Every structure is written in structure tokens, then in C-alpha cells.
Amino acid sequence: MSGGLDPIQEDLPLELPSSRPPSGGDKPWKTAERSAPLAPSLYEQLLHRVKSVPWAQWRAQATPMLRTGAGQIGMAARVAAKHGGSVARVAVQHGGTVARVAVKRGAPYTFRLARATAQISLIRALPLLVARTIHLVGFPAVVLRTALQFTIAHRAGLTVDEVSYFRVDDPAGYTVYEAPPRLGTAIAIAYVPALVLWVLAVLCLTQALTPRIVLHLPVTWVTWMQVWLGVGFAAHALPAYEEAGPVAEQARVGVVKADPVSVFWLIPAQIVAILTRFGGIIPAIVGVLACWWLAGMLIR
Description:
single chain, mainly alpha, two-stranded antiparallel sheet, two-stranded antiparallel ribbon, elongated
């Protein structure tokens, strides 16, 4: 039937173009325009640059240099081994760079360096090890001394911050207290425990030496116990440098102010500070020798 109406076309959603063929009055369809080509990604650019690097050319240039350097180092090692411990010095000049290779036959440098480092560490740690051993053997004296210091500082009305009766270190026991305002209080805290330990050391050593030297009695376990206690008390009779140093400084300041106690105590305080400055070994030796000599003088 000519001249009839076109079939009904429903409206498409989202304004999409109709799929019906164009009629006589409609415009012909337009062909889709081609989009512009996309630029290469960052990964593709990086891959292209890596592939463009002349690896083969660089490898060919570096191979003769590596072979020459390895051959010269091996020749230096053979020369050093042949001459029995002499040092071979080879100078290789390439492109303005001088390489010096010194090869010595014997113990490797790393082993010798480690051994020297261990020896130095042992030498430095040896005094602390000996001091700790002395404190560990004479721990009753350390505990007694710290208890006396704490008691005197507390009775003097000073604030005690920390107390350590025993630890495996140098010093083995300590009392952290408020700085005493008077020199007499500082002397009492530092040297009254020393006086008590000296008396106990002399008594123990006298009791141990009297049966042996005077009565010629055999040595028993009681004798060894007395010697152990006497030597322990004597080794810890002198105060540590942390106690003797402030007392000596306070005495020096008191001398300037013409304090009679400071004038009398300055020289002994300085002597004790010097003896105790380098750890607990020298004070222990001095204390044991002094108490042993005094105990021997008492029984003769």
C-alpha cells in the first residue's frame, strides 16, 4: 500500500539513536570518526630505553680490563708466595687510576685484626673483671658497708634516693643520698664504715694467725673461714671513689674557708681519693696488706 504511514517507533531511552533505516526525508548516517592514536605508556617508554642501551658493546669493552686486572693481581700473589712472606706491591695504571696491591704470606689480615681487637678488649676488661671477682668473694663486707652507710645517712637526716646492697659490678654496693651540708657528716658516712671493717678485718686475721703462728696448731676450716672474712673486710675497708672524691673536694673547699676539720682531713682525703680513683683493685690490695701487717704486729 503506497503512501501509507511509517510504522510506529517508540522513543529509545537515554536518547540513543534510532535503529531504523533512514527514510527518504532523513539524512544519511554518518560514519564513525576514528579516534587519535594513544601515546605509549610509561612502562613502554622505560622498556624501550632499557632495550636501547648498548649492553653488548659495554660488556665487550669491560672484559679485557677485568682479565688484565685479575691477571696482575694473581701475578702479585704468586710473587709474594714465591719470596716467602715478602710484601709485593704492584702498580697498575689504566686510564689515570693507580691500584696498589699488597699481598703478604702468613695469617690473614682479618684474623690478625680480630685477634688484636680481642687482646685490647681483654686488657681493658681485665681490671673490671678482677674488681668484680674481689667484690663477689667479699660480698659480706659489701653488704655490711652499704648497710652502715645507709644507717648513718638516714640518722643524719639526709634524703636517701637509692640503696644497692650488692651487685656484680664496681662498686658492688652504693647508697645515693643527699649531699651533706657539713664535712663532718660526709666523713662519718664515708669513713665510719671503713673503720668498722678495718677493726673486723684485724680481729678475724688475728684469730686466724694466732693458733698457727703462736700456738702452732693445725689449720682447720674455722681458720680458713676467719681468713676469708678478714681478707674480705680488709679488701673493702677503704671507701669507693664515688664516696672519697666528694669528701676530698668538700675538704678542699673548707680549707679555703679556714675550717679546722678540713685542714686536718684534706691530706688523708686526697690520698684515699687517689688510691680509689682507678677502681677497687688498688684499695683492696692496700687494705689487705695493711690489715695483715697490723694483725701480725698484734700477735707478736
